[in-house]
Amino acid sequence: MAAINSSGLMLEVHHRFLELWLPPGGHLDPCDESLLDAGLRELCEETGIRRTDTSPASAGPVEVILGDVPARPSRGEPAHWHLDFAFAVHVDAAPTLRPDISEIHDYRWTPVHAAEAGKRLSSRLAALLGYSDPGVTVVGGAGVSGAEGPRRPRAGRDGGRCR
User: Fold this and answer.
1) Helix/strand/coil (H, E, C) string of the chain?
2) Could you tell me if 2 and 127 are in contact, meaning their C-beta atoms sit under 8 angstroms apart?
3) Terminal-residue alpha carbon distance, the chain
4) CA 53 – CA 49 distance, rounded (Å)
5) CB 17, CB 75: distance < 8 Å
6) What confidence tens digit (pLDDT) does each residue in 64-117 have?
């Protein structure tokens, strides 16, 4: 989910397992009514940004990406492929972030062109959002550690908090 704030910065999270900066996201769960619904649920579960704090930036996905995911024996997951549907949403100017420390190390707000996903999506996102500044300054950073922040439930078991 490409979450873009009013300053044109995109939210990235540093994924614990993959050791990559990525936009928030995850798997489709049985409780999800659509791919967009899954993305909004994952955005909330990973960062605490609720769907009520967002508005769609496009009518559909801004990108569809096929990528391989390494095996994760500790969770009984073999290596597999992901078909990722990237959506973009606008978020409130200063959303309260509550990162899921079981999944992410850190987060940052980054100019779309400088974000890891933004490098791939920059022309589509920039056109969609009307931004032309290819700045590279990273703004913020939570320094999330295992001792900070709340643990958030996974796999769609959010008790309705993310609706």
Assistant:
1) CEEECCCCEEEEEEECCCCEEECCCCCCCCCCCCHHHHHHHHHHHHHCCCHHHEEECCCCCCEEEEEEECCEHHHCECCEEEEEEECEEEECCCCCCCCCCCCEEEEEEEECCCCHHHHHHHHHHHHHHCCCCCCCCCECCCCCCCCCCCCCCCCCCCCCCCC
2) no
3) 16
4) 7
5) no
6) 888 888 898 988 989 988 888 889 999 986 777 888 888 888 899 888 777 766
Exposed e or buried b per residue across 142-159, where buried means at least 16 C-beta atoms within 10 angstroms of its C-beta:
bebeeeebeebebebeee
